[in-house]
């Protein structure tokens, strides 16, 4: 029998999760997915992929075992107030994607006794290449079910609660950070002779190659960098120029600033 999943908040992330859940046989054989938002016109296209689209949170929740909350942090109070009459601690496992909102804060709104887990996926869920960090909880059976769901969308890692903000920055915001690198690399590529689409293809495939080298070997990045930097060659010249201009420092500072911002989100 399939597990009913309700994704409440079909915005950028909610849509990415739904798309990923409809893309593979593994996921679509395991899960029946409903996505809700108030303005359903914008996500009606998901119905073509076998996803149920609705503005009716109450019905979606009544049918579901797994509830994935994907509204903005400022929208949670209103949402919980609406679904509270049909929330049932025995039936529901709640997985929240909200940045900077703790399980305790959600429990204050739902009332006690619920199995609430924070999860931090990213938009690569749309193509089943997400990195999802999942909060370690005492609710082991619920944790297993949430891991199983997000494993169909990419890789998962169970982490302690206090690292959820760090995972938000590194994994979820990280998609935007790496994309900005690819855009900048493409712009550099155009300066040295490529058309924009050629430059983007080369930069994107090279980024995929670089990360795959690490994922396939567990090698340190610097070990793989050393294989590229021919003595007196052009790689080390370019790399050192980037560092003179603060590449690593800019990335580290950006990640720290993003992390410091999380507590101010609500
Ligand atoms: N974007 C990302 O890459 C990531 C986001 N997150 C977290 O996920 C959450 C969503 O982010 P994101 O997708 O970017 O934000 P969006 O604003 O794109 O999505 C939020 C969605 O929630 C819907 N919504 C608001 N209120 C309700 C309601 N009462 N019932 C049903 N739907 C509702 C809105 O649609 P409508 O107005 O039509 O109802 C909107 O589409 C945030 O908490 C964020 O911190 C986490 C990891 C990555
Ligand atoms: O920018 C944000 O606040 C959300 C959380 C992680 C990605 N997007």
UniProtKB/TrEMBL annotation:
<feature type="domain" description="Pyrroline-5-carboxylate reductase dimerisation">
    <location>
        <begin position="162"/>
        <end position="260"/>
    </location>
</feature>
<dbReference type="Pfam" id="PF14748">
    <property type="entry name" value="P5CR_dimer"/>
</dbReference>
<protein>
    <recommendedName>
        <fullName>Pyrroline-5-carboxylate reductase</fullName>
        <ecNumber>1.5.1.2</ecNumber>
    </recommendedName>
</protein>
<keyword id="KW-0521">NADP</keyword>
<dbReference type="InterPro" id="IPR000304">
    <property type="entry name" value="Pyrroline-COOH_reductase"/>
</dbReference>
<dbReference type="InterPro" id="IPR029036">
    <property type="entry name" value="P5CR_dimer"/>
</dbReference>
<keyword id="KW-0641">Proline biosynthesis</keyword>
<dbReference type="InterPro" id="IPR036291">
    <property type="entry name" value="NAD(P)-bd_dom_sf"/>
</dbReference>
<comment type="similarity">
    <text>Belongs to the pyrroline-5-carboxylate reductase family.</text>
</comment>
<keyword id="KW-0963">Cytoplasm</keyword>
<feature type="domain" description="Pyrroline-5-carboxylate reductase catalytic N-terminal">
    <location>
        <begin position="5"/>
        <end position="100"/>
    </location>
</feature>
<dbReference type="GO" id="GO:0004735">
    <property type="term" value="F:pyrroline-5-carboxylate reductase activity"/>
</dbReference>
<dbReference type="InterPro" id="IPR028939">
    <property type="entry name" value="P5C_Rdtase_cat_N"/>
</dbReference>
<keyword id="KW-0028">Amino-acid biosynthesis</keyword>
<dbReference type="Pfam" id="PF03807">
    <property type="entry name" value="F420_oxidored"/>
</dbReference>
<dbReference type="InterPro" id="IPR008927">
    <property type="entry name" value="6-PGluconate_DH-like_C_sf"/>
</dbReference>
<keyword id="KW-0560">Oxidoreductase</keyword>
<comment type="pathway">
    <text>Amino-acid biosynthesis; L-proline biosynthesis; L-proline from L-glutamate 5-semialdehyde: step 1/1.</text>
</comment>
<comment type="function">
    <text>Catalyzes the reduction of 1-pyrroline-5-carboxylate (PCA) to L-proline.</text>
</comment>
């Amino acid at each position: 029998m399939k597990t009913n999943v309700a994704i409440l908040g079909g915005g950028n992330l909610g849509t990415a999760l739904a798309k990923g859940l409809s893309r593979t046989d593994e996921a679509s054989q395991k899960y029946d997915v409903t996505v809700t938002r108030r303005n359903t016109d914008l996500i009606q296209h998901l119905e073509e992929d076998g996803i149920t689209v609705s503005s009716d949170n109450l019905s979606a929740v009544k049918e579901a075992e797994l509830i994935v909350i994907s509204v903005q942090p400022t929208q949670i109070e209103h949402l919980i107030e609406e679904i509270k009459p049909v929330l049932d601690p025995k039936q529901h496992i709640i997985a929240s994607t909200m940045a900077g909102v703790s399980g305790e804060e959600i429990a204050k709104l739902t009332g006690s006794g619920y199995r609430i887990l924070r999860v931090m996926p990213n938009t690569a869920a749309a193509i089943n290449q997400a990195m999802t960090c999942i909060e370690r909880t005492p609710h082991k059976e619920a944790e297993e079910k949430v891991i199983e769901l997000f494993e169909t969308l990419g890789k998962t890692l169970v982490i302690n609660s206090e690292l959820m903000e760090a995972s938000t920055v590194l994994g979820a915001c990280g998609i935007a950070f790496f994309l900005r690198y690819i855009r900048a690399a493409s712009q550099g590529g155009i300066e040295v002779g490529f058309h924009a689409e050629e430059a983007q293809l080369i930069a994107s495939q090279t980024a995929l190659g670089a990360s795959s080298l690490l994922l396939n070997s567990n090698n340190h990045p610097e070990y793989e960098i050393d294989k590229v930097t021919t003595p007196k060659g052009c790689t080390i010249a370019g790399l050192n120029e980037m560092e003179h201009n603060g590449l690593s420092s800019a990335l580290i500072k950006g990640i720290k600033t993003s992390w410091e911002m999380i507590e101010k989100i609500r």
